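Mods, move this if it's the wrong board.
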Amino acid sequence: MTVNSSSTTAALALIAGDMQAMDAVITRSLSSDVPLVSQVSQHIIAAGGKRLRPALLLLMCGALDYRGEQRFNLAAVVEFIHTATLLHDDVVDESTLRRGRATANASFGNPASVLVGDFLYSRAFQMMVDAGDMRIMQTLAEATNIIAEGEVLQLMNMHDAGLSEDGYLRVIRSKTAKLFEASARLAALLAGASAAVEQACADYGQALGTAFQVIDDVLDYDGDAAEMGKNLGDDLREGKATLPLIIAMQRGTAAEQGMIRHAIETGGTERLAEIVAIVRQTGALQATRDAAASEAQRAIQALAVLGRNTYSEALLELASQLLQRRS
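Not the wrong board. Structure tokens:
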């Protein structure tokens, strides 16, 4: 997912040097004697994106005044774990487009994408050992396991038009928000922060990650395909009952509920325009944005225990302005 906002640009400018140092670690760590491993890895890494998870780790390190070199290594680890999930996600979802480019599975085939995803996971675990800290390894191992559980849970929920709001939130807090949470917690562990500060960092990351995913699901019905670099209606085509659809079914007429239910169960998008109209007319988009705003506020409150500096102000702005996201 990408975010186009001045606050994000400013936050990333603050850590531009750190991100370059992380890129150097990534480049070194992607080296392999197997050419296809490097080709597929470079394909998805080069696809861009804001790299929000490693950026969050680096910003939080700044807020906690940690300047050690290990932050670059762990930022790369986080990016590798995320990249591996993308490779596997696109195979499972049969996606052909990501960030406006052909997906790795579309370019290299499903077997290569799955196996290179495995390479990135295993390389990430090699790199995290370098930190020499059992709590760091525990945090990343737990996060990776929960992300995998979230992926399986989402697979089980495919084409389930009866998915509840709680069930939806359980998936995104596992599949998406968990790595945001881990990224923020890692900064606290590197900085040797107190238990209270560590928990506040984790709470910020989880809330921010949840809000980002909720907004991402809004954009599948209210975004611009060219800006987003994905096809509108992809979630519906994959049979995903996301929050806009869940709320629209709660508020719609029996006929509208039936139309949405049928589309989720069959993955049919032939009536996408009508469904988008229902989602808008029922106020489901605004209600979903309100849910994201509640998570953003939770993130802002979590930052209260941190000292005020340029980095913590950037984290505050990141949470405050994410609802301006349009792609």
